[in-house]
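If you are new to this repository, start here. Below is one unmodified record pulled from the training split, so you can see the exact layout before writing a loader.
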Amino acid sequence: MSIEVERATLPCQVCKAQVSELRRGRCWACYQKWSEARPVGRGAACETCGERRRDNLRLLELHGRSAVMCHNCGTRVLRMDLVPETLEGIRARLERERRGAEQREGKIDARLFPRERRGGDRRREAGEARSENEERLELRSVEDLVFELGDDEVEFVDQTMVRESPRAGASGKAD
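And here is the target side for that same chain:
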């Protein structure tokens, strides 16, 4: 003997499907499409790690509030069983342990050219200046790249030429 339980269904405002749960008036499929289509503003950065590349950013709804997050942080937050109420709590949970303190303290640096390992962090704030230990790429001017060659410095090399095949007959056609 089976028991049928009737659940209250609600219509999705977009596709009119009858579902048992709505999010912002939409079924889960319509809500997912809507949330992925929302643009991220110019100059936005991930609220947890500071990532600024717009291709990697998305709007994520946390506790009824939209937050800008990169795909890495957003995915990690969505996989959490209990999402902290504050951004500070989320940052603390997502903090990468290997970035916390220097792991090689007191050990010999065996690299051929020892230098600062953490120079050039791409998550720097937009207005923040470059650090002094960050290497800078300096291009030479065009005048430094142009140089003159004398006649005695030019080496002539035979060029590839089209010649008659040695196997060609008297008619001039190859076999």
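Two things worth knowing about this chain: The chain has a mean pLDDT of 76. Residues 9-38 form one domain.
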